[in-house]
C-alpha cells in the first residue's frame, strides 16, 4: 500500500466543524484503566483514593465514575498517581503514601533543596528544627546554626529535658581549618577565632548554666581533616546537609534537607555515617 493510499484513509477534522471529542468518556476510561492496572476492586480503589483526596470515596462512586458520571478532576489526578506507582492494595499496605512513593522514586529521601543556608533558615528556622528534639548530632566547621542562630536558653532547656547533643568542630588550631581559610580567602586566624568562640560559648555559657546531669548530655569534640560537609541530624530521622564548595563560604552553599524513609537505603544513612566516622576519630574536650 502506498503512502498516498495511507493518507487517503485519514479524516480531516477541519472539515467537520461540529466534531467534539467525548471527553467525559475518555475521563471514565482513564479512571477505569488505572483501577484495572492496579488490580484493585472498586472497594479497594475507593479506600486507596480516600486519603489522597482528603474526603471519603465509596465503591458506588467509583462505579459511577467509570460508567455514567464524569470523574472529578482531583480523582483523575489521584488515579494517575495510582497508575504510575507500584501496585498495592489497602489490605496489604493500609498506610501507603503514593505521592511520597513517587517522589522517593525520583529524589530518594531528599525532601527539599535550598540555594543557600539563609534560604533554608527562612523556610525552617532553628527553633522548628531543634525544639522538642531528643538527639542532635552536628559536624561541620563552626556549627553556627546551633551556637549562634539557636537561642542559648533554648539549648539549655533541651539539655535539661534530656536531649543528647554531640557537637563536632573543625579543630581551631589544626591544619584543616587553615586550608579552609585559604580556600575561602579569609585572613589567617579568622575562622579559627570563630570556632574557638563557639566552643567557648558551649563550654562556659551553656555547660556553666545547667545541672551536672544535663552537662553529661552535651559532648564536644574536635577533628582535623579536610572539611567536606556540614551535617546535622535530628532524632535519627531528619538530616540537614551542606557541602563545602571551592572558594564558597559555607553560608552560601546549597542546603539539602533529607528525611529518613528506610532503615538502610537512601541518603540519610550515608550522611549519618559521615558524622559517625568523624566522631570515632575525634578528640573529646
Bulk shape: elongated
- Gyration radius (Cα, Å) is 28 Å
The SSE string, one letter per element, is HHHHHHEHHEHHEHHHEEEEHE
Helix content: 40-55%
Overall pLDDT confidence:
85
Looking at the structure, the CATH topology of the largest domain is Endonuclease, Chain A
What does the largest sheet look like? 8 strands, mixed
Number of strands: 8
CATH superfamily of the largest domain: Endonuclease Chain A
> CATH architecture of the largest domain, please?
2-Layer Sandwich
Strand content: 5-15%
Helical/strand content category: alpha+beta
Record the strand order, biggest sheet. Answer: 1-7-6-5-2-3-4-8
Unreliable stretches: 1-5, 86-96
Query: What's the total helix number?
Result: 14
CATH class (first level) name of the largest domain: Alpha Beta
Roughly how many Å apart are the termini? 86 Å
Whole-number tally of structural domains: 2
Organism: Actinomadura namibiensis
Pfam families: DUF5919 (PF19319)
Domain DUF5919: 136-282
Protein name: DUF5919 domain-containing protein
Explained architecture:
This protein has 285 residues and is α+β, with helices and mostly antiparallel strands. It has two domains: 18-100, 434 Repressor (Amino-terminal Domain), CATH 1.10.260; 108-284, Endonuclease Chain A (Endonuclease, Chain A, 2-Layer Sandwich), CATH 3.30.870. It contains 14 helices and eight strands. It has helices at residues 3-8, 23-38, 42-53, 59-67, 73-83, 98-107, 117-123, 126-130, 144-147, 152-161, 175-183, 190-206, 212-215, 268-280; strands spanning 110-114, 135-139, 164-170, 218-223, 229-234, 238-243, 255-259, 283-284. An eight-stranded mixed beta sheet has the order 1-7-6-5-2-3-4-8, sandwiched between helices. β5 (229-234) and β6 (238-243) form a beta hairpin. α3 crosses α4. The longest helix has 17 residues, at 190-206. It is elongated. Residues 136-282 form the DUF5919 domain. This is DUF5919 domain-containing protein. InterPro entries: DUF5919. It holds the Pfam family DUF5919.
Amino acid at each position: 500500500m502506498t503512502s498516498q493510499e495511507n493518507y487517503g484513509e485519514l479524516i480531516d477534522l477541519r472539515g467537520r466543524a461540529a466534531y467534539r471529542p467525548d471527553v467525559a468518556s475518555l475521563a471514565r476510561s482513564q479512571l477505569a484503566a488505572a483501577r484495572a492496572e492496579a488490580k484493585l476492586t472498586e472497594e479497594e480503589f475507593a479506600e486507596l483514593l480516600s486519603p489522597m483526596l482528603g474526603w471519603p470515596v465509596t465503591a458506588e462512586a467509583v462505579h459511577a465514575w467509570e460508567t455514567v458520571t464524569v470523574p472529578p478532576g482531583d480523582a483523575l489526578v489521584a488515579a494517575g498517581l495510582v497508575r504510575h506507582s507500584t501496585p498495592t492494595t489497602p489490605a496489604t499496605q493500609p498506610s501507603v503514601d503514593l505521592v511520597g512513593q513517587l517522589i522517593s522514586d525520583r529524589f530518594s529521601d531528599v525532601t527539599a533543596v535550598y540555594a543557600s543556608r539563609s534560604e533554608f533558615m527562612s523556610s525552617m528556622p532553628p527553633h522548628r528544627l531543634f525544639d522538642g528534639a531528643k538527639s542532635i548530632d552536628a559536624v561541620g566547621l563552626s556549627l553556627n546554626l546551633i551556637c549562634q542562630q539557636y537561642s542559648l536558653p533554648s539549648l539549655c532547656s533541651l539539655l535539661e529535658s534530656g536531649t543528647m547533643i554531640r557537637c563536632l568542630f573543625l579543630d581551631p588550631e589544626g591544619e584543616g581549618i587553615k586550608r579552609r581559610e585559604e580556600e575561602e580567602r579569609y585572613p589567617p586566624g579568622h575562622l579559627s577565632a570563630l570556632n574557638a568562640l563557639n566552643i567557648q560559648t558551649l563550654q562556659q555559657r551553656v555547660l556553666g548554666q545547667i545541672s551536672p546531669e544535663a552537662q553529661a548530655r552535651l559532648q564536644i569534640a574536635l577533628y582535623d581533616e579536610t572539611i567536606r560537609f556540614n551535617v546535622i541530624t535530628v532524632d535519627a530521622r531528619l538530616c540537614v546537609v551542606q557541602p563545602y564548595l571551592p572558594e564558597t563560604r559555607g553560608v552560601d552553599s546549597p542546603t539539602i534537607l533529607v528525611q529518613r524513609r528506610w532503615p538502610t537505603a537512601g541518603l540519610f544513612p550515608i550522611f549519618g555515617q559521615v558524622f559517625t566516622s568523624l566522631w570515632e576519630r575525634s578528640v573529646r574536650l
